[in-house]
Structures are given as structure tokens and as C-alpha cells.
Amino acid sequence: MKKANSLMMNIPSDTIKQYAAGDALTTWRIAKKLYKIITDEGLVDLYNDIVMPALNEYIRMTDSGVKIDEKVSNWLKDEYEKRLEFLENNIYTLPLCQEWEKIKGKKVNFASPKQVMELIYEMGKAPIQLGKKTERPTLDDNARKAILELPVNSKYSKAIEVVRGMAGIAKVRTLYKMFAAKASSWVRDDGLVHPEFLLHGTVTGRLSMKSPNVQQVPKEIPDDEWLKEHSIKTMFVSKYPDGYLVSVDYSQLELRLMACISGDSLMLETYRNDGDIHE
């Protein structure tokens, strides 16, 4: 039996019933107070006409689920593990890492920020990048990006080569940990993945989700052929035998909703004529 341990539905009922009962009781007790607050703030129509219908749709979407091709997900897991091993071994063959090992008598420890900064800044002679807040030497995302923008055919070429290798490892490791390594654990007893859609997950009100957050599945990365050929998206398939997945991107969705809700004549006229509100 496959379980995603963080999901309540996978916990035995005898174990969860006391928690669920307390949860329901607490919600019932505070409902009147909360409803009074939204009444005083003039938000009842928003709650009844938008929030609750949206919540019901989110529940329906969660219940509907999405299918993962487990053969593909298992293949991706194996491929990402092999790729990580290759990249991690390969970075030590780079000239700067070889020089480090020759001088120090051991391989550089990429888990040590101190050693990596010594490798890049002292041995690699790359311009030292300072953190915006700490104003101390760093190799954070912004620093690595700045180093990768240096001229390739320069005295910094060895450092650039190592930073590029580190970036490649980081990309693959992130995708492996977030998706490839976990995909099979998401599948429930019905053979589907049921991401939990959140109405309150962001301050802006944008759709968000968890367990798992499939919104974070990346598009193909154009400058990396291996990641293109091993796209995480390929594990997601239609749950219907002859079905297919459709990708849809709404144009200016939030502003269109604002036009409809507010009734603003200028906005409505712009969209009726296929205009762009930003122009």
C-alpha cells in the first residue's frame, strides 16, 4: 500500500478521528466570530459569491487528481541519479579542482562554502562578489550568475568552468529531490496524484498547491539538452485511455476578472475589442 504520510486520508481513522473532531469543533466555535468580522468589513458577498465557489472548485480539482506514468517516473529517477553521479565526478576533473587537489592533497569539499570560495576567488582569481545585505564575500545565486557573465576567454576561465559545473549539479539535484525521487510516493491507492489546491496559499490570491506542488514542475530549460530530453513533465499523463493533456495560459486573467467584477467601462471596452490594458 502506497502512502503519502503527510496526508490525513492516509492515516488510520482511529488515529485521526480525535484530531479531526477537535478541528471541526474549533472551526464551528469561531465561525460566528469570523462571519461577524467579514460582515462588518462588507466582505460577505465576496465570501459567498467568489471565495466559497472557488473553494468548491479547488476541492473538485483535488479529488479529480492527475496520473503519473510510474514507468517513466522510475526511469527518470534512475536517470537523474546517474546524471548526478556523472556531474559530481566530472567537476573534480576540471583544471582548477585538479590544481586544488594537487596543492591540498585532497579533493575540494563542495559542501564547504569556505573551501569553495577559496577555490573560486583565491585560486580561480574570480572577482569577489559581496552579499547585498552582509557585504561579505559570497557565492549565492547572484554571485554565481555574475561570475558566469564574465568573459569566457579570460583569466577567470577556470573559475567560470567550476561555477558552471556547480550550477549544472544544482539544477539536476533540485529536480531530483523535488520530483524524480518523490514521484512514486505521491501516488495514492486509486493510482492518481491528488495535489492539494490552496485558496489561501498566497497573499495575492494566486493559485497555489502542496503535496505535491506540481506548479513547480519546470518548463524545458533551453540551454540544457540533457534536461530537455529528461523533462519532469513527461511523467504526467492523461488518466483516460485515449486522453491527452492540454496546456492553457490565460491572457491577463486577473485584470479581466477585475473588469467584470468592477464593471469599469473602459476596461470592459478594451477587452471586448481584444485590446491590451497595458497599452
Question: Overview of this structure, please?
Answer:
- The chain is mainly alpha-helical.
- 54% of the residues lie in helices and 5% in strands.
- It is built from eleven helices and five strands; from the N terminus they run H-H-E-H-H-H-H-H-H-E-E-E-H-E-H-H.
- It has a three-stranded antiparallel β-sheet. Strands 3-4 form a two-stranded antiparallel sheet.
- Helix 3 (70-91) packs antiparallel against helix 7 and helix 10 (253-262) crosses helix 11.
- The protein starts with 12 loop residues before the first helix and ends in a 7-residue tail after the last helix.
- Residues 1-5 have low confidence and may be disordered.
Protein topology:
Elements: H1 13-40, H2 44-64, E1 66-68, H3 70-91, H4 95-104, H5 113-123, H6 141-148, H7 157-180, H8 183-186, E2 192-193, E3 196-198, E4 208-210, H9 225-229, E5 236-237, H10 253-262, H11 265-272
Antiparallel strand pairs: 1-2, 1-5, 3-4
Helix pairs in contact: 3-7, 5-7, 10-11
